[in-house]
Amino acid sequence: MKVFIIVFSSIVILFLIMGLIELKLLTVTEYEIKSPDIPESLKGKKIAVVSDLHEVYHGKDNVRLLEKLKEINAEYIVVPGDVINGRSEKELKYAGHILQGLSTLGGQVIYTFGNHEEKLAVNLKDRTAYEKLVKMSNEYSVLLNDASFCPEQDDKMCFVGLNLPLWLYHDHDRTGMLKTKVGDIMKKDCAAGKYTILIAHDPEHFDNYADAGVNLCICGHLHGGIVRMPFLGGMVTPRLQIFTKRSKGVFEKGKMKMVISGGVGWHDFPIRIFNRPEIVVIRFV
Ligand SMILES: [Fe+2]
């Protein structure tokens, strides 16, 4: 029994050390997206996804993150939420710094809030800091909170940013309101037939996004499952869900493909096992 306890404890300690080391090993994961719906102007272009930063630094002032993004040289840099943790106004300094850094890289920065940005107003019981974050985000990026954006250079495609209400991070959409909401945002600026890229922080509404008729959906939120097991995938999410069906990778339903980023950061549990922080690159072919 004593030998078993020693061996078991050693394995756990080894895994924890590995998990701490992996936090620092920022990687780039590339996915090719193929579809007859992709407009000619978009083919060969890249989207870099920087998700779930959670106020984390990769190098001083995030220099390693910014250098990798500079090398990737993507036409678009999508930030699908959780830049901050939403606990204090001091976090705005981090948000301003990283958004400013991203805005100097040459790609168009497109940002949609996640649950942690939304928690800022709730936790502080005041919207002043939240409004400051909105203003700052508009300064350094195209902020899409329930809004869309059709770039001039790619006029056959359209980004739609869906800002989920906090209750939908704990519940299902039973009434089909997300389909209606996405449809309404699309109607405003996205002419019918455009290749539509939905940015929505939480991937758990997979079926609702597919029902809305988008072509590609970019998500984050689940951090790839924090601990990933070979063949089984993400084991436990930041919300302590066990073996969630989709926590990282590419998934498909009908004409929609969903890309879920494992994220570049972490919060509360500073550990990632077999699950390095990642910048996701989506390449259209
Ligand atoms: Fe999140």
General description of the model:
The structure is a single chain. This protein has a six-stranded mixed beta sheet, with helices on one face. The chain has helices spanning 2-22, 63-72, 91-103, 115-124, 128-140, 177-189, 206-211; strands at 27-33, 46-49, 76-79, 108-111, 142-143, 147-149, 157-162, 195-200, 216-219, 227-229, 233-236, 249-253, 256-260, 278-284. It is α/β, with parallel strands linked by helices and 285 residues long. The N and C termini lie far apart (57 Å). The mean pLDDT is 92. The chain has one domain: Metallo-dependent phosphatases (Purple Acid Phosphatase, chain A, domain 2, 4-Layer Sandwich). The protein is globular, with a radius of gyration of 19 Å. α3 runs parallel beside α5 (128-140). The structure holds fe (ii) ion (FE2). Fe (ii) ion (FE2) binds at residues 82, 114-116, 201, 221.
Low-confidence runs of at least 5 consecutive residues: none
Fourth-tier CATH superfamily name: Metallo-dependent phosphatases
User: What average pLDDT do the residues reach?
Assistant: 92
Q: Which percent band covers the strand fraction?
A: 15-25%
The share of residues in helices is 25-40%
CATH class: Alpha Beta
Number of helices: 7
Strand ordering within the main sheet? 1-14-2-3-4-5
Task: Write the CATH architecture name.
Answer: 4-Layer Sandwich
Rg for CA atoms:
19 Å
